[in-house]
Amino acid sequence: MTRFGVIAGFLAIVPLAQTQSPGEWPTLNGDYSSRRHSPLTQINKSNVGQLTQAWKFRPNAGVIKGTPLMVNGVLYLTVPDHVWAVDAATGRELWHFNRPSRGDRIANRGVAMYKKWIYFGTPDAFLVCLRADTGEKVWEAPMADVHFGYYMSLPPLVVKDKLIVGISGDAADVTGFLKAVDPVTGNVLWTWNSVPKWGEPGSETWPSAEALAHGGAMTWVQGSYDPDLNLIYWGTGNPHPVMNGAERPGANLYTCSIVAINADTGKLVWYFQPSPHDTYDRDATESVVLIDGVFRGRQRKMLAQASRNGYFFLLDRKTGEHLRTTPFGPQNWSLGLNRRGEPIPDPKKDPRPDGTLFLGSGTNWYTPAFNPATGLFYVNAAQGVWSLTYLSAGIEGEPEDHQGGREAPLGGGESSLLAIDYQTGGVRWKLGYGNAAGILTTASGLVFTANSGYLVGLDAENGKTLWKQNAGGPASNAPITYQLGGKQFVVVSVRDTLYAFVLPAKP
Amino acid sequence: MLWRRITFLQLAFGALGLFGQNANSRWWAWPANPDPQAAERGKSVFTAHCAGCHGAKATGTAKGPNLIRSRIVRKDVDGSATAALVRTGVPGKGMPPVPLADPEMKELVAFLQWTLQKYDRVSFGVPAETYPLERLLTGNAEAGKAFFSGAGGCTSCHSVTGDLAGIGRKYAPVFLQSRFLMPRATKPKTVTVTLPSGEKVSGELRTINNYDIVMKDSAGQTRTFDAQTTKAEVQDPLAGHIALLPKYTDAQVHNMFAYLWSLQ
């Protein structure tokens, strides 16, 4: 199955980086499918317990939330404003690029690579192109206006000869988009606005041009791509004002949606809306994971998302037809599903001035993983969390701010690693004390993530702990793996340090 | 360091925890970092000359647009563009020229920039202590009282003349509403572990996860156990309250609030 360009077979489909060899990690999530599944097997169930630290890299620049790429023996690592090239075998710094900027520096998720260049986004919403060999800047281009609170936290997705750019930052009630950018010139080739313009299809789900122009729908988690269908899949963020839905009656397309976009034209092909008319910040930006497999006896091209709203969705990715919608935790806000398989929010459970008792489950930006051998979708999630939610509208009913409400957490609930059977949406097993960490799976039947404040290697079949490492806290990025010089590395950051683990040398 | 204090559960939800990181890092230096005292003085200038059309919080009215979203104000690096517009007005578009002396103009611009930053910084958060009582008082105190001694079963642990006497006075209204649903325990959680030998050890729970159980035993000693091989039972003093949450309707919450609030 090299359909999504399992790392080894990737070159055959798309020349992402020029000199790939088997065992690289050439994109944020390893390949186009967002499965975060590696074909490597040197580290396996029987030896994973022996993993030891090979090296660490501590750039001393704050928490590392970026997930590195590994191409041709070099890791490319980021924190906001900074990029490092690091020798993947030794952890030695090769070059460092710093571009100080004004803007939201809450996180940078990593770089993208195309031919001999790497690309990253900045707190002031620029896309920057660097030479991969030296770290010298080739060009930079603004993707949005920082004065409106826009910033870039995620790297572009390289699709053929385009860089697909998503955007972060909705504090100023702005709207989101995807842009396709020419990797050589930095020119914008197409833009898809994640809320339509007034009069365009979808705008009928908004009350006014004004509401729509400030509708939100950021695109701040990286999407996926199917080369055969030539479709880009992306999740979009919540509408604004966040909690005050009375300001924007309607489904508010394309907020809280999963969209399929033609890679050449930037035109919407289909959409599915996990949270129509959201009033709880339940953006649907989480990874859209491409799965090829049998569903109800038929081979299908599918797409799965464990969404912020506590539902697991399985769609046909050719058509957007919904195959499964299954909650992965308790909630008290949904009246059931509409004909499209989307949850119907109970208006009685919207935030109110006197407080609404809200129960929800969900996940967030930390990347899930899918292992085709187990058929399990792994996600760190919260289940059954209670809060009181308040609508804080002004005297004339206008929202007091872009949040439009407040939330007093009450408690209850638990956070766990869930292993979801994609066929049924049911949770096959779970491991409590989950952390807000990304996940990696391997063909040797392992799951790497963080749990209970440790870095862990688990049996992908049943969640049994096979390796654990106390590195002073849970992972702050998503683990990756690659093979170099005959050795398989597992690399993950904890706080301000990047750690590499390998099997001990044979005596 | 905010991110240390927010739990994973919160990370799954609020924008506050979206990235689990120090909130301070979010605030980009605006074109100008307004002086809060100048901004405070500028507020009265704004109230006197502008609020009538642009709204008390600059978020707009039928007579004047939202200035928080104004391209001119947002992109104004040194305040000069806003000042120029205010001086000349927008002829024929309903924005009158407002001639202000330089110091007042500076304070006005400081107020606008400060308001804009404040607006952008709002994110998922708990309601303020000052959240108005009248918004919360929508329930029926009599019905709350009946629930307290009836279906709610509160009297099995509480008495309104004993531990809950005067509870309506103890907290700001909006906090009272959270506290009666989920109080803060004054007693710690306890844990009893059963060792492979069958021996049982109890103590105050410090940490529990998949791998470690840490307790302070009755002798005051900190003891650590391997959670993978040790059976543990946790006693949470608030278990009764957690079990109550699914039993409340929203109406019962507001009735109970009205009742507890009346216990002044």
Structure description:
The complex is a heterodimer of chains A (507) and B (264). With 507 residues, chain A is mainly beta. Chain A is 2% helix and 41% strand. Chain A has helices spanning 10-13, 209-213; strands at residues 37-38, 52-57, 69-71, 74-79, 82-87, 93-98, 112-114, 117-121, 126-131, 137-142, 157-159, 162-166, 177-181, 188-193, 224-226, 231-235, 258-262, 268-272, 289-295, 298-306, 311-316, 322-327, 334-337, 343-345, 356-362, 369-371, 376-391, 405-411, 414-421, 427-432, 440-442, 446-451, 454-459, 465-469, 480-484, 487-494, 497-502. In chain A, the strands form nine sheets. In chain A, strands 25, 26, 27, 28, 29 and 30 form a six-stranded antiparallel β-sheet that branches. A five-stranded mixed β-sheet of chain A has the order 1-31-32-33-34, with no helix packed on it. Chain A has a four-stranded antiparallel β-sheet with strand order 2-37-36-35, with no helix packed on it. The longest helix of chain A is centred in the middle third of the chain and has 5 residues, at 209-213. Residues 1-20 of chain A have low confidence and may be disordered. Chain B has three domains: 21-120, Cytochrome Bc1 Complex, Chain D, domain 2 (Orthogonal Bundle), CATH 1.10.760.10; 133-185 and 240-262; 190-236, Roll (SH3 type barrels), CATH 2.30.30. Chain B is built from 13 helices and five strands. Chain B has helices at 2-5, 8-11, 36-49, 51-54, 71-74, 80-88, 102-121, 133-136, 141-149, 167-170, 173-181, 239-244, 250-262; strands at residues 190-194, 200-208, 212-217, 222-226, 231-235. Chain B has a five-stranded antiparallel β-sheet with strand order 4-3-2-1-5, with no helix packed on it. The two termini of chain B are 37 Å apart. At the A-B interface, β25, β27 and β28 of A face α2, α7, α11 and α13 of B.
